[in-house]
Structures are given as C-alpha cells and as structure tokens.
Amino acid sequence: MAANLQSNRRTYNDYRMALKNEVDIDGWRTHARALLQAGVAPDRVTWTVAGRSDGRQLDLTGPAALPEPDADRPARSIRIAKPLLSLINTGLLHRNEDRFDLAYRLLYRAQSVPGLHGNPADADVLKLNGYAKAIRRDIHKMHAFVRFRKIGDCGAGREQFVAWFEPDHHITEAVAPFFRNRFTGMDWLIVTPEASIAWDGGKLSVGPGGRKEDVPQEDVIEAEWRTYYAHIFNPARVKVAAMKSEMPMKYWKNLPEAELIPGLLEQSGARVDAMVAQPQDTVRFAERATGSAIEPPASLDQLYQMLQQQTDAPMEKFAPTLVRGAGPENAPIMIIGEQPGDQEDQQGRPFVGPAGQLLDRALAEAQLDRQQLFLTNAVKRFKFTPRGKRRIHETPNVGEINYYHWWVEQEIRLVNPEIVIALGATAARCLTGKAVKIARHRGTILPFIADRSLLITVHPSYLLRIPDAQGRQVEYAKFVRDLEAAAASVRQDRASG
Ligand code: URA
Predict the structure, then answer these.
(1) 380 CA from centroid of ligand 1 (Å)
(2) How far apart are CA 459 and CA 426, in angstroms?
C-alpha cells in the first residue's frame, strides 16, 4: 500500500515536458537545459509528444512547474561534451519512444560522470550509440535509394521531380540539406509517410507526410536507370547476400532498377557461361571484366606495374609513357580526365598542361585542395597525330576506352573515394559504359557502384576551346559550381555520418 502511494505520488509529481512533434529536438533541448539547471532527476520527468496516441502520456495532472532558481545560489552550470551532444542529436531521430528519456538520463548522468559518453560498457551509452548507428544507416539508405520521377517543367529551364520514400526513423527533415546540395538545379519534392521536404531553387521547406499512391510511379528517366543498372550488372560477380544487405529488399519496391534483379539473377549463370565461351580476343576483355584471369592488384604501384606489362594495350598512335594517377591513396574525391596531353606525357603526371592549370584554378575557386584529390585519366597514354614538330591530341575511340575500363575500376577500388568526378565524355563513357549526354547529366550527383557518388561535368579543355570570352566565363562558372556540388556532397555525407 505504501509502495502504491509512493508510485502514485511520483506519477502525479512528474515534470511533464511537452514536445510539439516527434522531431521537436529544439523543444527537447530547451526543456532539458531548464531541467538540468533545476537539478531535476530523470526519473521525475515524462516527455510527451503532441499527437502521439500513447496511453502512458495521458494528461492527468498538468505539468508541474520547475523549481524556482534559488536566489542565493547561481543556476547550475551545464557541461555537455561535444561528442555527447552530437550522439544525442543523432539518437533523437530514432523511432523508439524512449529516446527522449534516454537522452536526458545520459545528459543528467554526464554532469557528474565526465567522459561518460566514452564508456562503451555503460548501458545508456550503448543504447544511444545503437540508435545513432541505426539513424546513420537509415540516412545512408535514403541518400542512396530515393528515386525521383519527373513530373514536369516549371519554366526558366527548371524541371520538377517528385520521389516517395519510407524511412525507418524520423530522418526526413535531417536529410533535406543533403538533397538540396545534390539536386540544386531542379525543383523536387520528397514525400514520406510522416513528412515531406521540398526545394524550389531558393527555399527548402518541410510539410506534412503523404501517401505512396499520390506520387507518380514511373517516368522516362527510369528507363535510363534500368538500362544503366542492367549494364553495370556483372553476372560473374553476383553476391546475392551482399546485394540484399546493401540494397535491402524492403527498398526494392520503390527502385526502378530493382525490378530487373530477379531476371538478371536468373540469367546470370547463362551469361557467365557465354562469357567463358567467347572467342579468344574477346575473352581477354571478359576475363578482365570478371577479374578471374588477372588477380586484382593490391596497391596502386602494383596496378600501374601490371598495366605497364600488358602486351595487348592499344599502342598505335599512342605515346609509350603510361601516365599514372596522382594524389593521396585514400582521397575522398577522384577526378578522372580523358587522357594525358602532350605535357602530361612529357612530365609523366596528369593535368600539368593548360587544361590542368584551368582545372587548378576552378578547384581553388570551389575550395578544393588539389593535394587532397586523386587525379587520373580514363585512358592512360597520350593519343596523338604528329603534325610537323607538334603532336596533336586525338580522341580515343570506344575500344581504347574499354581497354582501360578495368584498370580505372581498380584505381577506384584502391583509392576508395566517396565521389568520382568524370570530366567530359570519355571519362563518363569509361565509367558508365555508354555514351552520356554531358549537358543533360552534368552537376547532378548520381549514385554509383559500391555506394559511391558520381558527378559528370565538362572537361576543362572544352572550356579552353570556347571562342568568346563571355561564353567561356559562363561555362567556367558552371564548371566551378559542379565542383562545388561534389565538395558539398562529400561534406554532407560526412556530416550525416
Ligand atoms: N586532359 C586530361 O584529360 N588529362 C590530363 O591529364 C590532361 C589533360
């Protein structure tokens, strides 16, 4: 009986802190600060969220007023270590209803236990870390699996897109800046069951959630996605379990390319057999594509050494020097050009001639440090036609681009960048396996193999060839903007964990 009275009293004396909605993080922060300053222990606090139909949160008593600050004693000073704050900010986006309690409890306990957030054995720390991990994964999936459908044009060259997505947690508002940075040049709306976010070229807005039926399910771009996916699907490398873990089946229903997976899997055995049965000279290429004949190199040094030793590389019209990529081996951004030019061939380094100098200027304007990037080329040797003493650049053909494809793929694997920037049509073809309309795709950050991003833009030598100064200036500014979009995407990926 005494215990009952005690627990009743505790319930009615709870400080009930009201939050406006599930993502009222600012409200939680304000309340948490006031509670901490008043020294209120976590077990005396109940968090309520407007609109939640939860019997536990029934308003029976009205909130108790927080204790008045003691005039003789200054308000308690609050200590919050930055990593704890960041852990809490992420963890509060979790769907579990205990997250507000958990975060306040940790904050309260951290006042008397410095470094608490760094103790992996602490049950609260462990739990909130688990929440934060789930959020990072959910955000990552939303970045990768939102698929826009074109719904029209809104004048001034802007197109309108809409997408449907079902996140597991309350992350929709949090990912809005990421999509604004990636898809700056188009108007878009992303609808989820709980909230929608929109960008009109000037303003990001948040609105109510919606229903899947209200979002168009198909557009022309999806046909391209399907073709692209079917193209990059390598039957000899199918790892169904890994594929399902990277692209969990629950997302398949909203992905245009996913419709292809069962069919492609079914055909994969036959396609591998067909590869093996190819006549000799095509088998050499197919073997590269599957990685079965040549052991993938373990380092960039080994890669370039192996490539140097290949006796079947296209050499007619090519200078013999193999120009290696340059930059840190773990660079977050990899830039791929067409092929070395005259000066690159002479110096054995990429992007040191006039196009390289223009690239340097644009990188600096986009706040990118060349020393932090990995620069390389789709084709590793200089193709030219001699004219007198001069060597005139000649564009590599499709066969020559294809020859180097596997080697470029290995460079990407070894450097492991977050984003690959393709400069011009040759690089774009090398990476996508098809002719790409640069004007159409430039500046948009596209999902790329192994969870990377791909940004396609013009080649700096195209800018050098524009005859009128004004046109050159306009195009150059667009080029800088494209590079900025790549930089922003890397920053955003990091910020969202
Ligand atoms: N153009 C390229 O594509 N690559 C270089 O290295 C130099 C010019």
Answers:
(1) 10
(2) 9
> Which atom of ligand 1 is least distant from the CA of 355?
8
Q: pLDDT means per 10 residues in the chain (497 residues)?
A: 39 76 94 91 91 54 59 71 92 96 96 90 95 91 84 76 93 91 84 92 89 74 56 52 60 64 60 44 34 75 94 93 97 97 97 97 95 98 95 96 93 94 96 88 84 92 93 93 92 66
* DSSP string for residues in 178-198: HHHHHTTTSEEEEE-SSEEEE
How much is the pTM?
Answer: 0.50
> 330 CA distance to ligand 1 centroid (A)?
21
Are 237 and 203 members of one domain?
Answer: no
Under 8 Å between Cβ of 91 and 117? no
Structure confidence at residue 275 (pLDDT): 44
Q: Quick count: other Cβ atoms within 10 Å of Cβ 76?
A: 12
Do 159 and 165 form a contact (C-beta atoms < 8 A)?
Answer: no
Overall domain count for the chain: 4
Q: Mark whether 206 and 73 lie in a shared domain.
A: no
Task: Kindly state whether residues 209 and 306 are assigned to the same domain.
Answer: no
Mutate to test the pocket of ligand 1, among 339, 352, 363, 459 (most ligand atoms within 8 A of CB): 339
- Answer yes or no: are the C-beta atoms of 91 and 25 closer than 8 Å: no
* Ligand 1 lined by 325 (C-beta under 6 Å): no
For the chain, the residue count is: 497
Structural domain containing residue 159: 146-214
Asked whether 355 lines ligand 1 (CB < 6 A), one says yes
Q: Which atom of ligand 1 is nearest to the CA of 459?
A: 3
Distances (CA, A) of 488 to 144, 183, 239, 292: 16, 11, 32, 37
Is-contact 398 429, C-beta < 8 A? Answer: yes
pLDDT of 259 reads 64
* Chain centre distance of CA 413: 17
